[in-house]
Amino acid sequence: MKTNELEDKLRECVYCRDEQIDKLVSLLFNDDCNVPSLILYGVSSTGKSYLLNQALNLSNKEVIWINLKTCFTTPLLLYRILTHAGVDQDLAYKKGTHISGFLHLLHINISKTEKHVYLVLDQIDQFPEISPILFSMFADLALNTNLSNLSVIFTLSTHPAQYMGTLAVPIVFFPQYMKDEILEICQNTPPVLDFIDETGEETFEDEIELSVWMQYCGFLWNVFGSHCLNNYQAFRDVVDLHWPQFVQPIVKGNVHPADYAQLHKLAKHALTSDLTISRRLHIIEPTKIKYMHDAKSVDLPLLTKYLLISAFLASYNPSRLDAQFFSHGKGSKQRGRKRKNTSNQSLESAKGAKNGTSRTKSTAKLSQLTLGPKAFELERLFAIYYAICPNGRHVLSADVFNQITSLASLKMLLPAHKGSLRSLDSPRFKVNVSREFVIKISKSVGFPLESYLADEPV
User: Fold this and answer.
1) Rounded to an integer, what distance in angstroms lies between the CA atom of residue 401 and that of residue 257?
2) Domains with residue ranges and CATH for the chain
3) How confident is residue 391, by pLDDT bands cut at 50, 70 and 90?
């Protein structure tokens, strides 16, 4: 198939990705020059894997597709690649689970075919044992195996710079969908639109049915769009969930599809009903309420736990101490000295009070933990998160902002506005959880929270 024909077919099934289609086809399906490796980068739900899968299927190429989410170790990854390439399972298990044997067996099997083979490592950033060395090995796989008919394609949701080093690998970037693009994709991929009432006596024209679907998508965006954060898959799940209930009055014959005002009224009532809201709430048995005080019973992702710890430190620590606590090579040693000095000062104060020779000035000063949380800027939260999270080297993606939104919706973070905010002001928040709760959260991830808390009076 010619490249221009492939581009036209891809545009018919993949919407709002014209630029990415042109780059992908020119880099992968040009017979004169096939790149040995390629990176498809973009946050989740941006169409990377879908576009690549459609392109490979339409071009009838030989593909080895490995989803790294289901691989847990490097030997398992190498074994799956070899077995998908046609290597005997016993041979791959015995000799292919180390790098040298893997390269040798892969060269033998792929060199037998004259067709171009595409090795797709989908979601490689989710692989637990990913490292720059392993990434470089796969990026140079065609060179290391001396195979001119092999191309390796990576898909990532985090920025590839942390893995590439000095590698020169072409990158195709997939930006997040905007509102108009999400609505266009939804409107071009409708469900079955056969509105036949229960009596079977009335059918409707396709134009009317499609108009109902398009208006429905726009209505749902006004209700849920701001909560989906331009995530197409999240919005599509909501659209598919409420669609049967939206068209139920049409199926029952109570409302004509052209009467969209009545449909809108009924749908608005249904989406705000107690039944719809209760489906989004966790029903807790009275006997289990006591366990809610235990932080271990709260199912939070690891990233969210570190964000909550960072927010607590940002609320209760003075900003002037951030360099002392969170700079590399500092923090723990200085913190230990500070605690020792603080204890000595308390001992001396107690002795002085006993002898009646000293009036402690700290009686008029209160700890920050007593005064409550203070507002902090979002940039300061990110800086602390980078410093304390073991995976802080990863570049911030939309997942971090999604988790902050989740914490705000759970009322664990509260927005703090001082007067009227200008458009250029950074968002400010306060933490809204107790110290005991955060201590339990920190223990669950093995973080020494007490070593990073300032106990000096303010």
Assistant:
1) 39
2) 3-173 (3.40.50.300), 179-278 (no CATH), 295-332+367-452 (1.10.10)
3) low
